[in-house]
Amino acid sequence: MERKEPVILGIDLGAKSIGWTVTACAPDAAGKMEPTRLMDAGARCFDAGVDGNLEAGKDEARAVARRMARGTRRQLYRHAQRLRRTLRALANTGLLPGAVASPPDARHAYFPHLMND
Q: What is the pTM of this model?
């Protein structure tokens, strides 16, 4: 197998582009690797994942609306889960009839604000 010279890969990540270089290197008198020649380079430009003025710092990610909706769904689920656990704990200790803790229809008679559950 042929021995290949050592190389350095340089990568530049930007907001709307990625650049790269491959540089050949060789040891200097002190044994430290120093770049000797540029082997290849390139760049890829793409649309930023944000809307607004990127240079002025007034940008907003495109996924903000999805993230906010997901957060709202999680909050509603956690609230309902806490309520279910509380009702189940009260029913298990005998402080609430068991029927109220399990089927939604029975719960609605006692807790009308849970009609969405």
A: 0.42
